[in-house]
């Protein structure tokens, strides 16, 4: 089962993107396996610059790409990135699969991160305010919402309403911030989901099948 795993050990910005771009050209499948849209690679092809935040950069080499279960995904950012690549002639349809186990970044994650940074003042950690940390916190505490849940709208709505009620208590009583509307979050999330639902699947099956076929898999 041939595979290559690229791991950074310098807290980012150590040149992983260059290595990924070189190795992707020699791979059959490229998988991003953790993180969120606070990271990514920038690839330069001729005079064109392609910034990647969620979609593996192997997509510009025409490779089949996977957003793995370890990621936390902001659906709005993912959709914007997909549409931006397509507008520049990069094929995404049929070349990208997204794990149904990915946890979803929702507006309350961003609101909580922003409120906490404001509370810390000069001691703030310098977060990107994209909700990455709070989304992983919910994943660890088993309160998170996975992409697969969105295929069951009523179950998703109930889970979301419970989460928003809890987060609103924290936002208003601890941080003095404005509460959020669960229905608005639901409608926006489902609208984004409709555009990418056909790409969401159990990616572990795809990856294992590719490895069993002896194809080259790159984990970035």
Brief account:
This protein has 220 residues and is of the alpha/beta class.
Low-confidence stretches: none
Compressed to H and E, one letter per element, the order equals EHEEEEEHEEHHHHEHE
**Within the largest sheet, what's the order of strands?**
1-10-2-5-7-9
The profile of the biggest β sheet is: 6 strands, parallel
Number of helices: 7
Overall pLDDT confidence = 92
* Rg calc: 18 Å
Q: Strand tally, please?
A: 10
Determine the fraction of residues in helical runs and give it as a percent range: 40-55%
Basic shape: globular
Could you explain how this protein is built, in words?
Helices cover 41% and strands 15% of the residues. It has helices spanning 16-24, 75-87, 107-120, 132-140, 153-173, 182-196, 203-212, and strands spanning 3-5, 29-32, 41-45, 48-52, 64-67, 72-73, 96-99, 103-104, 200-201, 217-219. The protein has a six-stranded parallel sheet, with helices on both faces. A two-stranded antiparallel ribbon has the order 3-4. Strand 3 (41-45) and strand 4 form a beta hairpin. Helix 3 packs across helix 4, helix 3 (107-120) packs parallel to helix 5 (153-173) and helix 5 (153-173) packs across helix 6. It starts with a strand and ends with a strand.
């Amino acid at each position: 089962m041939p595979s290559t795993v690229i791991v950074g050990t310098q807290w980012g910005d150590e040149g992983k993107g260059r290595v990924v771009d070189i190795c992707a050209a020699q791979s059959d499948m490229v998988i991003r396996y953790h993180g969120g849209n606070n990271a990514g690679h920038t690839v330069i092809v001729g005079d064109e610059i392609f910034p990647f935040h969620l979609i593996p950069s192997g997509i510009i080499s025409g490779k089949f790409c996977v957003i793995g279960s370890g990621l936390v995904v902001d659906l709005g950012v993912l959709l914007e990135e997909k549409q931006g690549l397509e507008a520049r002639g990069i094929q995404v349809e049929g070349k990208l699969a997204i794990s149904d186990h990915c946890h979803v970044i929702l507006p309350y994650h961003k609101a909580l991160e922003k409120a906490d940074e404001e509370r810390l003042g000069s001691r703030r950690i310098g977060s990107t305010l994209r909700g990455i940390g709070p989304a992983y916190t919910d994943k660890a505490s088993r309160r998170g919402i996975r992409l697969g849940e969105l295929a069951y709208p009523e179950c998703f709505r109930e889970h979301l309403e419970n989460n928003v009620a809890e987060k609103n208590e924290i936002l208003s009583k601890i941080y003095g911030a404005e509460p959020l509307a669960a229905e608005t979050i639901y409608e926006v999330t489902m609208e984004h989901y409709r555009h990418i639902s056909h790409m969401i699947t159990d990616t572990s099956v795809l990856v294992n099948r590719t490895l069993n076929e002896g194809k080259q898999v790159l984990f970035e």
